[in-house]
């Protein structure tokens, strides 16, 4: 099992966002791997790059699938003359 799959399984079984340190500890325990700084750092990097995970702020991570699905693109920023990125989030205009 890949380390990110173990982290995914931990979050899935927990059913709610977790502190990243607890998540790393649990995932590495599931893999039977001793926690070393290098291994934990690698797993943290892999979680950052894996689209299944979502940073929730304050060192907390959850699963992207827990977010409600949007019913369509948000047109309100276009109405205000703003710009959106590919996820439909507003981007600030640079006046400078």
Automatic annotation (TrEMBL):
Residues 84-96 have a biased composition (Acidic residues). GO terms for biological process: DNA-templated transcription; regulation of DNA-templated transcription. This is RNAP delta factor. InterPro entries: Asxl_HARE-HTH, RNAP_delta_N_dom_sf, RpoE. Residues 61-96 are annotated as: Disordered. Belongs to the RpoE family. It holds the Pfam family HARE-HTH. Transmembrane segments: none annotated. The gene is rpoE. The keyword Transferase applies. Gene3D superfamilies: RNA polymerase, subunit delta, N-terminal domain. Keywords: DNA-directed RNA polymerase, Nucleotidyltransferase, Transcription, Transferase. Residues 1-66 form the HTH HARE-type domain. GO terms for cellular component: DNA-directed RNA polymerase complex. GO terms for molecular function: nucleotidyltransferase activity.
């Amino acid at each position: 099992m890949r380390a990110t799959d173990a982290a995914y399984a931990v979050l899935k079984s927990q059913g709610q966002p977790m502190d990243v340190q607890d998540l790393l500890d649990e995932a590495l325990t599931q893999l039977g791997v001793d926690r070393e700084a290098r291994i934990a750092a690698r797993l943290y990097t892999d979680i950052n790059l894996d689209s299944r995970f979502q940073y929730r702020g304050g060192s907390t991570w959850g699963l992207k699938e827990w977010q409600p699905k949007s019913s369509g693109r948000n047109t309100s920023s276009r109405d205000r003359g703003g710009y959106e990125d590919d996820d439909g989030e507003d981007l600030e205009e640079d006046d400078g």
